[in-house]
Write a structure and sequence with these properties.
By secondary structure, the chain is α+β, with helices and mostly antiparallel strands. The chain has helices at about 45-55, 80-100, 105-110, 120-125, 125-195, 205-220, 220-240, 245-265, 270-290, and strands at about 5-15, 20-25, 30-35, 60-70, 80, 115-120. The strands form 2 sheets. A 4-stranded mixed β-sheet has the order 1-2-4-3. A two-stranded antiparallel sheet has the order 5-6.
């Protein structure tokens, strides 16, 4: 079953007064792109986050937001780098004196330097915190996947309906093309009679050859059969395979090629209008495919 590339999911896990939350947003993209926003304590886990996403999705631009909140302020996994704070304080004071600024160096100035508050070395390897975040992320990814599947179901119904419309129009084109063969044969015969007074000089073999060439020009059976074969493969892929967006796009290109050939072979206005209608449906299908994984 196909999936859309649009989805959203949220997960939350709480344990021992620590709450981990995860949000996943997914939109269209030609390839799989993963952008993550992690707490400072989890910056070393970025690759692991991406691997979890790759295990779920093949295409789409995925935005991940992770957050960890400790209810007890004493559990915040940061510590003051006193040496760095003193060094920056002295540096800022030297700068202030050098450029003759009267205002004093404040705490706000020092906090602009990330080294003043650093991640506690012990917390960098906090497996418990990562375990909570991973659980929340799994929930968010599952929710996003479910939404993508639901939207994929809606896309499936729309695409199947459009293929059915195309097949109906192909059947009508075949009917019109076959009907025109005897009409064109009669027209060609009448035209020859008008041009040639003595009918005995007409080369019947040459005339039959011209009829055969005419029939070949009007016959769109081969193109129609190939077109319907593409339609069948298209429907099979929709219902049986995952991650088929690229394959479906290729099939639509082949369908469009057959439609162009049918239009070029026929000088019938009825067939021309049907070909235009088919190409309109193919364009709508192509637009829908941009959102399929």
């Amino acid at each position: 079953m196909i999936s859309s590339m649009t989805g959203y999911g949220r997960g939350e896990t709480t344990e021992d007064r620590t709450t981990a939350t995860a949000e996943v947003r997914s939109v269209n993209s030609r390839y799989l792109e993963v952008n993550s926003r992690l707490p400072r304590t989890l910056t070393l886990r970025e690759n692991e986050v991406k691997e979890l996403v790759r295990a779920k999705f093949a295409r789409g631009k995925i935005s991940i937001s992770l957050n960890v909140v400790h209810e007890n302020a004493n559990e915040v996994p940061l510590k003051i780098n006193i040496a760095a704070a003193k060094a920056y304080y002295k540096l800022l004071n030297d700068l202030r004196k050098a450029v003759k600024i009267q205002s004093k160096v404040s705490l706000e100035h020092l906090l602009n330097f990330p080294e003043v508050l650093e991640i506690d070395e012990f917390e960098k390897g906090d497996e418990k915190e990562w375990r909570l975040v991973k659980k929340a992320l799994d929930t968010a990814l599952n929710e996003a996947e479910l939404m993508r599947q639901r939207e994929g179901g809606e896309l499936l119904n729309d695409l199947v309906h459009r293929i059915e419309i195309i097949n109906t129009k192909l059947t009508e084109i075949e009917r019109i093309a076959k009907q025109r063969v005897p009409e064109e044969r009669l027209r060609l015969t009448e035209r020859i009679k008008e041009l040639v007074t003595d009918q005995s000089i007409i080369d019947q073999n040459r005339l039959e050859l011209e009829f055969a060439l005419l029939v070949d020009k009007l016959d769109v059976t081969e193109e129609s059969v190939r077109f319907q074969s593409h339609n069948k493969f298209f429907l099979d892929a929709l219902k049986k395979e995952d991650g088929v967006g690229r394959k479906l796009n290729f099939l639509v290109q082949e369908m469009n090629r057959e439609a162009n050939t049918i239009g070029a072979k026929s000088d019938s206005s009825e067939i021309a209008h049907l070909v235009v209608a088919i190409k309109e449906e193919l364009e709508k299908i192509r637009e829908q495919l941009q959102n399929i994984e």
